[in-house]
Design goal:
Elements lengths: L1 H7 L7 E12 L2 E10 L18 E16 L2 E14 L5 E3 L13 H11 L5 H8 L3 H16 L10 E7 L8 E7 L5 E5 L4 H8 L4 H4 L1
Helix pairs in contact: 2-3, 2-4, 3-4
């Protein structure tokens, strides 16, 4: 039954099972779908000390419960009451929690929702409109945009890819220009950078930092 629910929702994530549909519930004064799920597996090594899990050195140690925003399902906001497996390492006597590509550690918004935010922000659309379309707060969208911006700026982009894809989007009021600029590798779709100002002289100054050979 749980596999049927996961497949129906299009969630195909290893070790993560949607175990129950809890129906409609009111969340923050809004009717939302609620599901229950569990994340568990046999860890190959300790996330704390790195020791291999031989001779049952790592044992299951209860669950950590969290509520994850899944995005819109059947045009309604949906949440997952997720039980994450906790583990105890006998070697270092530390505990750690199961991880999944579905959601980042210590986060309550699924990575799929974050990817949708990024795609929508690359269009000419305000953060407020993105928030309304995904049933999240504008502050959540702004925080995600900052996370994406910070992550790409920590990478050294000394080389431009052969093919670029770029767009502009309405940003916050605190930027100099009313529109921001985002560009990515059109082949891999990896975001390269997000610029707070898409005005011509700002873009020229930015791309002139790259060598002529890279720009040709």
């Amino acid at each position: 039954m749980c596999n049927d629910i996961s497949e129906m929702l299009g969630i195909k994530v290893k070790n993560l099972k949607i175990t129950q549909n809890l129906g409609l519930h009111v969340h923050k004064n809004v009717k939302a779908l609620l599901y229950e799920g569990q994340l568990t597996y046999h860890p190959g090594a300790c996330s704390c000390c790195g020791i291999k899990n031989d001779a049952h050195l790592i044992i299951k140690h209860g669950f950590r419960k969290t509520k994850v925003y899944m995005g819109l399902i059947f045009e309604r906001p949906a949440y997952l009451k997720l039980k994450k497996q906790r583990f105890y390492c006998k070697a270092c006597q530390q505990t750690f929690t199961a991880q999944t590509p579905y959601i980042q550690p210590r986060c309550t918004i699924s990575n799929e929702v974050k990817r949708m935010m990024t795609r929508k922000l690359s269009k000419v659309i305000s953060e407020k409109d993105v928030a309304e379309s995904l049933c999240v707060s504008p502050s959540t969208v702004h925080r995600h945009l900052k996370e994406v911006s910070d992550s790409v700026k920590t990478q050294a982009h000394h080389i431009l890819p052969e093919h670029l894809a770029f767009d502009e989007f309405k940003s916050t009021k605190d930027v100099e220009g009313a529109m921001s600029f985002i560009y990515c590798d059109s082949v891999t779709h990896d975001i390269i950078d997000i610029l707070p100002d898409r005005r011509k002289h700002k873009l020229e100054a930015y791309f002139l930092k790259f060598s002529r050979k890279q720009r040709e």
